[in-house]
Amino acid sequence: MSEPQVAGPLAGITVLDLSRVLAGPWCSQVLGDLGADVIKVEQPGQGDDTRKWGPPFLDDGSRDAAYYLCANRNKRSVAIDMAEPAGAELIRRFAAQADVVIENFRVGGLAKYGLDFESLREVKPDLIYLSITGFGQTGPLRNNGGYDFLVQGMSGLMSVTGLPDGEPGGGPMKVGIPISDLTTGLYAAISVLAALNHRHATGEGQRIDLALLDTQVALLANQASNWMNGGMVPRRMGNQHPNTVPYQDFACSDGSVLVALGNDRQFRAFTALIGLPDLADDERFAISAGRSVNRDALLAQLRPAIARWKSAELIAVMEAAGLPGGKVNEIPEVLDHPQIEARGLVHEMARSDGTPVKVLGFPARLSASPATYRHAPPRSGEDTVAVLSERLGLGKDEIERLLAAGVIAETL
């Protein structure tokens, strides 16, 4: 007999998710992993845009894209047309029971349906209402649409990502995952948790205004600080680090190796390991600041010494010496890695029709209230009837009338 699942730390919290694509759904998936009951509202006949963002697609009746599956577990999907007055009223009734509403429509886009913060606060005064937009609710760009790729460029991230200008392949480069969307989703979840704690202490709900551009600028971290506090304009440096040297990839005789040395002790041990112990006593390289200033001179000596090694052998001796080094894994390699298996990061779930789906789990391990995996990413509208009956008490005749009128829909 299987052990009963521990209720997540957000058990009892209801999230009404009006968002689509990635930043909002990523936030609601985090909340769902932690135990919240997430009701995902989708447009009848359309569904979340990412359901069509393939190939690859699931080989089942839904033909949902793999992209959609990455951000929508632990949710129940209801298909409601909010453009219909009866549909907007259903969503208002859901909001009256919800703790959190998440939306990522353009600024003011939900007001015409009576689903904006001011309208919903009238039916639920302690509601936490999260709005995610490209540029926020204020400022000269507030009415512009925001997309991850655009924000990566506008935020300055692409100015420090990629090979330097003048080198083959040099120029601005986006990150290989939609990092602005994902980090906005994480900041959104953090903000919701903070607002829930504030409500617990005061009984007061609030509006959360979160922008992709603000999030990505906040994540410039050391690069922005180098400019603000040191006057250094960050530039694209490929895989090199702007402050710490050596912290990059090096060519070996049969491939490449990653070397990430963060302090003087590690540098001394590494130079001894590769047969260049005198480098650590050279006044140009003995301390981190010197290595950064004299980067080119140091690399001119390290590169030929490292090139004599086979990559696996160098990684092995670095590991034995407790020095941080490794290789660049491809996605299949990392997902099959013994460390990832030991951490239990890959989970297999089954959709309502039995179709298996693999997902990457919640990375934090909470000893008393761990993340749970209760619902595989749903088909669009598959929970419409059940949720309307359970949450709003709608009877069979009323549900059939709404289905016939196109206000709601079942599974696509």
From TrEMBL:
The keyword Transferase appears for this protein: yes
InterPro entries: CoA-transferase_III_domain, CoA-Trfase_fam_III, CoA-Trfase_III_dom3_sf, CoA-Trfase_III_dom_1_sf
Pfam families: CoA_transf_3
Keyword Transferase: yes
The entry's keywords: Transferase
Any one Gene Ontology molecular-function term assigned to this protein's record: CoA-transferase activity
Gene3D superfamilies: Crotonobetainyl-coa:carnitine coa-transferase, domain 1 (3.40.50.10540), formyl-coa transferase, domain 3 (3.30.1540.10)
Protein name (Swiss-Prot/TrEMBL): Formyl-CoA transferase
Native source species: Novosphingobium subterraneum
